[in-house]
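Working notes for the structural subgroup meeting. M.R. asked for a predicted model of this chain before we commit to crystallization trials. I am recording the input and output together here so anyone reviewing the notebook later can reproduce the run.

Input as submitted:
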Amino acid sequence: MKKSIVLSAFLSLVMSFGAVAQEVKPEEKKRELGHYNENKFRQMYDEMATPNMFRTASGAPGPAYYQQKADYKMNLELDDKNKKLYGSETITYYNNAPEALEYLWVQLEQNIERPDSKTPLVENQNMDKSITVTNFTKKYMDKPFEGGFNIEYVKDAKGNPMKYTINQTMMRIDLPKPLKNGEKISFSIKWWYNIVNYMEGAHNGRSGYEQFPDGNRLYVMAQFFPRMAVYNDVEGWQNMQFWGRGEFALVFGDYDVNITVPADHVMEATGVLQNRNDVFTAEQIKRWELAEKTFDKPVVIVTQEEAVAKESSFSDKKKTWKFKAQNVRDFGFSTSRKFIIDAMAVDLPTNKPLAISIYPKEANPLWGDLSTKAVAHTLKTYSHFTFDYPYPKAVSVSAEDQGMEYPMICWNYGRPDEKGFVSDRIKYGMLGVIIHEVGHNFFPMIVNSDERQWSWMDEGLNTFLEYLTETSFDPNFPATRGPAKNIVPYMKGNQKYLEPIMSNSENIYNFGANAYGKPATGLNILRETIMGRELFDYAFKTYANRWKFKHPTPEDFFRTMEDASAVDLDWFWRGWFYSTDYTDIGVKSVKQYFVSTEASKETQAMFNRRGRKISDGEPMLYLVAEDTPDFNPELKKGFDVKNVQALSDYLNKNYSVEEKNALKSPKYFYEVEFEKPGGLIMPIIVELQFEDGTSETHKFPAQIWRKNNDIAKRVFATEKKVVKIQVDPKLETADVDVENNYWPKGETESKFDTLEKK
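Returned structure, recorded in token form:
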């Protein structure tokens, strides 16, 4: 009875469980979701603008490419006593666009210095825990500087007032009727503004004056006139406000400029001086004519003695300097009674421009010794890599706490201390700034990219050529930007503070590294490691010549570099320019193999699975790893052809004596597995070091990662035993972690070990 009850209860339980089981459906296997193409080598169609009649898929200007033109006639007067600039200009604007324009946009960058400027309001602030009395007064008590343009009028060619609207650093001029394709319009603007001391907290530190203790001033004048904004096929009017960092997109044109200054001043400016006989002495003119024929060393035109003699004169008389410039995108000038001038000619294949320096006595002897020589070397080097410098001169101006460029003229940092001492830091710092700013004549003054949008297109390309110029000027030049290893601290930094190179100028956290260093380094890696110098140099020169005196975009650069080299670089642009990925390639594992005439059990099993007999067909050789269970230690003696009868017979039968002598004799075999913890694609550069102290380097193209983004394997057959394997031995790829670059592991010294040795 009891048994029956128990059995019945068990059956009931089973039936009950079965019922429940029927209700619970077996868990269905979920399908993985699909994904977009994330291959690092996918093409850039989704990132780049579609080619059209204006800009071709090859990166060249298209058959319908156009650009506007703006000519300027200006009369300027510098009021040295009151630190004011007065100006009037007539602008003739040519509409070459296929569409009509209802209004014009004019740039007013000086308005960044207006008391109501919004530029200071966009910067974050922290409370100062301590502050000097001077800075406290300026920050919390003084009235704001009364800067910015005072527009007195805007008139048409007949003298009638034109309607205009000012929005911060932009001014819209409304046209009475649309300006059609092929038409031009002339209008006049009169203005004045208070000149800022650029060394005392100016929002736009590129322009203003430097005050000397004796009352003299050194003026570096730029963005001093209302300038036409760019209108093009890419974005119409370039009317982004000037916030202080993203610089200037400007129109090419011709300039006719008269500048009135105190009679004891000496100046240089964009363009060719038209009245040299009126502003220089007869002796100075003779020196100038000598400089035009001197190619080996600078000729002093205005001596230090002549400059010093005028420092205390403060003449009440005036003198007008007249300059003309053709096909330039901007105009700048510098004036002071303190200036010394020297110059020398530069021998280029198609042009003989003058390299010129102007500087106060405070800059000597450093500037007299090096400035003009650096200018000349820069023109030669940049011309070699791009095109012959087309303008008649390039001027370097000594302006402390400066580094800024304009067509044919630039302001540059670096002077001895009060005792005349020049440290290496000051010397090389000055040389680097001069090379960089003179180099800007090529990018963006001639290859005229939009600095307001893409700082890297001028700063990055220019910094790359600066690096080549610095190292050719002085092989021991302590270049900071260019070598791949120097960008590692930035690329391994906190991702919160990193942006892709392809970011607008105003949105970059670390501007120097992002707009200057990283693009320059990328180009250097392309030249030295990926493309090779010959292919890179040809493509880079092609880009420069295609777009000189034109307005290129990033796509035009990317496409031209590929078009002229037949090197697919989409993977590089996507990784280096469009992402914040970093390089990290290491050695994951190394397996050594030995040649055997006997198959291992593992190999035999493989043949069996395939339904084949090892004895079938041609005699076989087997490569057996040391960790194979049935490994024969005798194999470690090394492989010798003479010990393998089947191989010897094959060679004797199929190769002549001469052919056999030319064959390699590998004895050691290594399977190396490389890993890529970093997201950035790069070639694998690997050095094998042998037990006899010799080494050999292998380079595998970046495409080795095309089917597996994480792992790559290569087999090395060597005649000598490998004792060490190192990835990227010369630090060419900006690898952020070299600890995993070695085999055997632990080959690198720790920081502690290094410190212990000191």
